[in-house]
Model the fold of this input.
Amino acid sequence: KKSTGKKPLVISTWDVGINANKAAWKILKTNGRALDAVEAGVMVTEAEKVNCCVGLNAYPDRDGHVTLDASIMDEYGNAGSVAFIERIKHPISVARLVMEKTPHVMLAGSGAQQFAVEQGFPLEPDKLSDEAEKAYQEWLKKSEYKPVINIENTKGQNAFAPAYLNDGLLNHDTIGMIAIDAQGNLSGSCTTSGLAFKMRGRVGDSPIAGAGLFVDNEIGAAVSTGVGEEVMKVCGTHIVVEAMRSGMQPEDACRFAVERIVKRNTAEKIKDIQVAFIAIDK
Ligand code: GLY
Done:
């Protein structure tokens, strides 16, 4: 779509993003900073009681543990992220502290958890939500060694998932959010439990700057959702922002990045892959 130039503005992935947008909007409409808005926004999704793919109530890896990835970028091009973090309710806030309080961009695994605890985040119980436990027990019956990829059918359900994954559960994956505030500054956030029943230790695109999230305050911001492996292999959000730099409108830039993924896959393989980008320009 052609830019309207209206600001502030916030957008995020999937329908569940609407509640997250509301929380972000409270900050943006009172002239708050985009960075605060994108953190507060996705925290709503991270705290949801029933959620397949974000936060501690999401589906576990194939060993039965929920492991989370998150990243955040501000208007100065600073980035912070956590990968493979466990038992922390708000990985996005830990990612922000990595950005603001450490000389690093990414902390992973037990080191990320240790940093979170040192910063005062409580260590949550190592226990699956009832919904996740149910789905995990079902999955264990076959233990198909294949992460479930989120591809919507016409009912908005995962076309490739066994029925129990769609039963009464919201079907989406990563929440990614990007915003421009009243001052014209951009920020973005991204948080996920990754692919359901993934291999232990698997990390997706969401905590990787330039893959799952990229913000350049001179140009625009982009965030992705879908099969992280495909997004990582092309540095997806970096492509989107660089395409906007070369003059493309946000929607065309997103299409350009998707086409790059399509091009490097066979027609047979691409049928099993869903990836999406959202973007806003300066
Ligand atoms: N896009 C989220 C993931 O692949 O983990």
